[in-house]
Structure formats: C-alpha cells, structure tokens
Specification:
The chain is built from 3 helices and 5 strands; from the N terminus they run E-E-E-H-H-E-E-H. With 94 residues, it is of the alpha+beta class. The protein starts with a strand and ends in a 14-residue tail after the last helix.
Length: 94
C-alpha cells in the first residue's frame, strides 16, 4: 500500500476460491449460485481466450479482494441496521 495526500492506494489483488470460502463461510455451490443471481461479486477468468486449440487450457478463476471485502462489509452493515431477514435469535443483541 502507498499513502499519498491522505488517500490510501491499494494494489488490486486476486484471491482464489479456497480463500473466498474461508472468508465468507459459504461453500463452493453457494458462491456460484450467489454470483449467478447477482448477490455476490463475479469471478475473473485468469486464462485468456484460446487462439490455439492445442494450447494449455487455463480455466482458473479468482475474485478481486476489494470486491469480496466490500460484499462482507455490506453484510455487516445490513446486520447493524437491524435487518430482520435473519432467523429468529440471530438479530438479538444479547
């Protein structure tokens, strides 16, 4: 990270599926379903389009770390605003 004029400039970083699963607590299927319905950040294909059909097929994907972090912050924000979509007892402040 670099700091300039009180602004923090972060380098973009890709995170792979195991890290996304660890950070969110979701399983693979849930992540892909949420991507499909637009409620989770979309992944980025790391391999380019194949020009040569005999070339190595890289189907690797990753997520942009900042987008996943923002998604997590929005979940926390919803909780803090008292979202009542949670099961009974999960919204209690104790």
């Amino acid at each position: 990270m670099e700091k300039s004029n009180d602004t923090i400039i972060r380098q973009k970083r890709f995170i792979r599926l195991p890290e996304v699963l660890t950070r969110t607590g979701y399983g693979r299927t849930t992540i892909y379903r949420k991507m499909e319905d637009g409620s989770f950040p979309r992944s980025v294909k790391l391999g380019g389009p194949l020009e040569d059909p005999e070339a190595f097929d890289s189907r690797a994907v990753a997520w942009i770390e900042d987008e996943v972090d923002q998604w997590m912050e929005s979940r926390i924000g919803e909780r803090d605003l008292g979202n009542t979509d949670l099961p009974a007892g999960q919204n209690d402040e104790g």
